[in-house]
Amino acid sequence: MTRRFLFLLGSSRSGGNTELLARRAAEQLPADVEQRWISLAEHPLPDFVDLRHDGDHVRPTEGNAALLLDATLAATDIVLATPLYWYSVSAHTKRYLDHWSAWLRTPGLDFKATLAGRTLWGVTALAHTETVVADPLIGTLNNSAAYLGMRFGGVLLGNGSGPGDVLNDEAALARAKTFFAREAPLARFPYETAAA
Ligand SMILES: Cc1cc2nc3c(=O)[nH]c(=O)nc-3n(C[C@H](O)[C@H](O)[C@H](O)COP(=O)(O)O)c2cc1C
């Protein structure tokens, strides 16, 4: 199957470090791999309303929710390109993930079955030099992938504060060259891997 990568840009500024790093990694994808790039800031989702136990969610047919849902369903690979904000994903990215909870409960979508076996990736810029502080973000993405039965390719981390700083992080640029070529195993919750 031809792979179709969906890059969801989660920064609150355009052209920032996360996007720069994601584009460096994407440059290495083979030419026959489709790439679609969507800025979540430029395509804001409505506030998430939890209707899960009040009745069925309805499939969005217009606006950014429909655009992002259709793009998500069409992707074989979803790349959450989110800066580290307060040690986790950005609000734009979190809101997109919250909408997964609606899409999981939308009749006729088969959201979980469609995403199962597909791959979730992360690309993240952060100002802190000790990358261990990004562990909560990595856990969020890993566990979300595990919940959906997806594969998880890990998170490409790069250092930077001001826009363009990440281009000075030679180690991150080197990791970007092979990031999408790596194996993406089926995601497992930590308690599953601990028991294995
Ligand atoms: C709201 C906000 C929260 C942030 N929280 C963190 C943080 O928890 N840890 C960190 O290392 N950097 C943090 N930063 C710094 C950004 O991760 C850093 O500037 C990064 O390069 C921004 O990525 P961007 O250029 O793609 O927007 C934060 C920045 C903002 C605006």
From TrEMBL:
UniProt GO molecular function: oxidoreductase activity
Keywords carried by this UniProt record: Flavoprotein, FMN
InterPro entries according to UniProt: Flavoprotein-like_sf, FMN_Rdtase-like_dom, ISF_SsuE-like
Pfam family of the protein (one): FMN_red
Ranges for domain NADPH-dependent FMN reductase-like: 5-119
Gene3D superfamilies linked: 3.40.50.360
Flavoprotein listed as a keyword: yes
Record carries keyword rRNA processing: no
Protein name, as recorded: Flavodoxin
